[in-house]
Amino acid sequence: DTAVSQTPKYLVTQMGNDKSIKCEQNLGHDTMYWYKQDSKKFLKIMFSYNNKELIINETVPNRFSPKSPDKAHLNLHINSLELGDSAVYFCASSQDLTGRGNTIYFGEGSWLTVV
Amino acid sequence: AQSVTQPDIHITVSEGASLELRCNYSYGATPYLFWYVQSPGQGLQLLLKYFSGDTLVQGIKGFEAEFKRSQSSFNLRKPSVHWSDAAEYFCAVGGAGRRALTFGSGTRLQVQP
């Protein structure tokens, strides 16, 4: 069983479209994240939810909106896609957000290409 | 603010040679430190972590790392590299505060036959 699974793995879409990436974890963790990895491999936190509550909301355009229907799911919706949104988006989870609980487990990534 | 520096963008070693990847961190209190590996087209896999106690930690795939508080470093080592170790390696720092891990910019390891 995959611990953190995200779909789709590959997504090619046109500028201006709206798209969603779904993520589910079966680890029983309380905290979930979205990280963005750019073309230079730099990983940057976008959002974090703890028990469905938004905890971290970094400087991300309002076009990006996370939604957590329950603590096992954290979806990412992107409106009006731009060329610069092309990146790999990683979903991740951890037992909690603090201390020894914050070993993060990653999904396999969603490769988004905006054309 | 916490931060991580990986000074080496790209390292090439011969198969069977030893390896050391450097990581320096900045954190105001006792850090929690991690090394992750990313193979091409894959997600990140945890290699090892340091929370407290013995400053030399063992991980998977024969990797180890040593926490040196005086140098703010957490370098990753392997005595004999295998071709399958070719990948991107990320160092990360976290702590007791309610923040996500902060990652370094990564070191790409290439292994020559």
How would you describe the overall organization of this protein?
- The complex is a heterodimer of chains A (115) and B (113).
- By secondary structure, chain A is mainly beta.
- Chain A is built from no helices and 11 strands.
- In chain A, the strands form 2 sheets. In chain A, strands 2, 4, 5, 6, 9, 10 and 11 form a 7-stranded mixed beta sheet that branches.
- With 113 residues, chain B is mostly beta strands.
- At the A-B interface, strand 5 and strand 10 of A face strand 5, strand 6, strand 10 and strand 11 of B.
Major beta-sheet overview of chain A:
7 strands, mixed
**Helicity range of chain B:** under 10%
Q: Major sheet of chain B, described briefly?
A: 6 strands, mixed
**Overall pLDDT level of chain A:** 92
Gyration radius of chain A, in Å: 13 Å
Stretches of chain A where pLDDT falls below 50 for ≥5 residues?
none
- Which blocks of ≥5 consecutive residues of chain B have pLDDT under 50? none
**% residues in beta strands of chain A:** over 45%
Could you name the key traits of this structure?
heterodimer; A: 115 residues; mainly beta; seven-stranded mixed β-sheet; 11 strands; globular; B: 113 residues; six-stranded mixed β-sheet; four-stranded antiparallel β-sheet
Short description:
The complex is a heterodimer of chains A (115) and B (113). Helix content of chain A is 0%, strand content 55%.
Helix and strand topology:
The complex is a heterodimer of chains A (115) and B (113).
Chain A: E1 4-7, E2 10-13, E3 19-25, E4 31-37, E5 43-50, E6 53-57, E7 64-70, E8 73-78, E9 87-94, E10 105-106, E11 110-114
Parallel strand pairs in A: 2-11
Antiparallel strand pairs in A: 1-3, 3-8, 4-5, 4-9, 5-6, 7-8, 9-10, 9-11
Chain B: E1 3-5, E2 10-14, E3 19-21, E4 24-26, E5 32-38, E6 44-50, E7 56-58, E8 64-68, E9 73-78, E10 87-94, E11 102-103, E12 107-112
Parallel strand pairs in B: 2-12
Antiparallel strand pairs in B: 1-4, 3-9, 5-6, 5-10, 7-8, 8-9, 10-11, 10-12
